[in-house]
Amino acid sequence: MMDLATVIGVVGGTILILLGCSGGSLNTLMGFLSLSSVYITIGGSLAAMLINFPFDRFVKAFKSVRWAFFTRTYSLEDIINTLVRYAEKARREGLLALEDEITDSSDEFLKKGIQLVVDGTDPELVKNILEIEIGFLEERHNENKAFWESWGALAPSFGLIGTVIGLIQMLRSLDDPSAVGPGMAVALLTTLYGALMAYFLFNPIAAKLGIRSEEEIMIRQVMVEGILSVQAGENPRIVEEKLKSFLPPAQRHRVGRDRTEGVGLNA
Question: Model-level pTM greater than 0.90?
Fold first, then answer.
């Protein structure tokens, strides 16, 4: 599902920045384009990132950008409904009956947890295995977030480098008035480009990935609690009330809808 906030922010921000730069004139906007500034800020910071991070981390971080623009196809309410449905079936037919339920599940974490339960794994071991999985998931998310934060820190620095280069070019050409303008343009535009890269793109991407990570970790924690409750044979009503405590009060009334379909978790 597309995240409208990110799309509106990127599109709306781009339009407003371009309008602010152009003042309604395309010729004025063209004055804000500088290949030298692009080479220094984008090219230089990109090269520095390649030096800072292994290539596989680089590829993973670029793939992670999609989570700034898309949300999960199911919600916490869907997860709770599914887990309560599993609790109901386990109470009626036994834990082994859940093996058929998870066959078509699209969530590998939930499938793994239920399979451990069906296999008769000790509850403490189930909890430990799933918590280790959550820990490594969080670590991977933090790596992607740190990548974009690092680029957000580097971009303004390369903007400053470009400013110094432009000033040097300008000072060397004081005897040639026609060269002063281009040197000053490079000096100022590299600062502008570096600031836009950091504060309009990279840092906001890092922040959104952090939010996505928190959301997914919360979902995983609910799954762990629900799986352990199912394994313990707790009353489905008690399971529902326990898991609803993870939700804000305003959203708790949504739990219970479409429970029989297992919304969002089956392929």
Answer: no
